[in-house]
Amino acid sequence: MSTHGTLVGEDNRRAKVLDPALSPRALYGAELRYYRERAGLSQAQLARLIYVTPSFVANLEAGRRRMQPELAAVLDELLDTRGFFVRNLAAGRSTTDPDRAASTTPLESRASTVREWDAVHLPALLRTEEYATALARATDLPRVAALPRARSDRAGHAAVVTETALRRTVGSAATMAAQLRYVATLVREDRLTLRVLPLATAPHTTTQSAFKLLTFPDDVPAGYVHGRDGWTLSTEPGLIDLLGLTYDLLRDTCLPPEPSLDLVEAVAMGLDVLGP
């Protein structure tokens, strides 16, 4: 008999759809654990079959990782679920909190290193509450506030930003100036390594408008790529290598760290002159 009730009846299981309001990732994790145990597999054995680490499987079962479509299809076939994971993918990738849906902070807070690139705006983890709110009002993006205590207290946080993003005023001049001073403070406190891609530099050709590359002490690297439907998580080695190479190429065309900081502070001072 299952420990999570009517969701896991075996022979007479109906093709039900999970309610996204009922902690979908937790339900997804419970279902994965049920099907894995039904197949007589340990987390380590399942991990070997799908080419991930045991901690990756553990995080899926604990609801700390989002289920990706490709993995859902593999698990359905491997665990003979009659299509459960693909059928309930919308629920498994949703959340009752739109801010949490757009933010990758929980995973980033466990990372040893985080490297970020954003061609248009300041990266999400660098944003102040005021900047993020103003950005949401001006665009179709959800509000994603920076959470410096969760991420920017580590030496492994690095970002490449464009001079265009620095000079694109989001909200009032005062809001933008405060945002840039916040970034400068992170750099001066050695909580962030920042490189700025200047206007005079021909931009590196990349199809990714924004991405994040994360490494962990006890797990495989992960990458978040931003597209029309929001952030997508991947641990596919080929994509991780491509993101790493792209980041290195972008960084190598940027200003060095000290001139990058000088530019951030100079733009902030110019905004101060403009006033509120």
TrEMBL record:
It comes from the Bacteria. One of its GO terms (molecular function) is DNA binding. Pfam families: DUF5753, HTH_31. Residues 32-85 form the HTH cro/C1-type domain. SUPFAM superfamilies: lambda repressor-like DNA-binding domains. This is Helix-turn-helix domain-containing protein.
